[in-house]
Amino acid sequence: MASLRELQRSFAAALHDPAARCAVEPAANLEIYRNTARFNFRHALAQTFPVLVKRVGADYFQQLAHHYRARFPSRSGDLHWVGRDFAAFLEAHLAGGEYAWLADLARIEWARSEVSVANELPAADAAVLATFAPEQLECLVFSLQPALRLVSSSYPVFSVWLANQAENAPPVDQYVGAEVGMIRQHANMVEVTTLPADLFSYLSAVAGGA
Fold first, then answer.
1. Where are the domains of the chain?
2. Cα–Cα nearest to 146, from 192, 108, 115
């Protein structure tokens, strides 16, 4: 008799590969679970990347989700995290094509998903700095909020994302150029905004431990 671990492993493998041997019987019933797993994965992905779905259409997004799941199956019981590798997948999958910019759009949407569940910590104000001796101040290293992400793109993906918060958004001219910006959780809301290049450079240096 198969152990519980063997049953679980064979069942998980069979959800992704109909040809995989599975100790669970009857085998025909596995297709119900396969369909449910596929639907839940695709639905969770679409909930995380709604603007990307709008730009490419539901049918093409379903194709992308199928290929993505084949390469990056869910490793967590929490479907919130199924989109963790989607931007990297799109970068490789669409490299060199006219839709390569979608990878950076996905980075914005994944950043929104990440910061929505991250902690917003108290800011380091003057009272915090006053706890250090003057000779210590030049040695301090600051860090950004855990609920903040920086995204840089060669494409106007922030303009695309912001424009698509309205219905029937017109296409954004891809030749507008590069954009940089910030995604952060603040006061229980997720903010997406472009930043001036010099401020983005400064924040990137802080994030890097400068």
1. 1-100, 120-210
2. 115
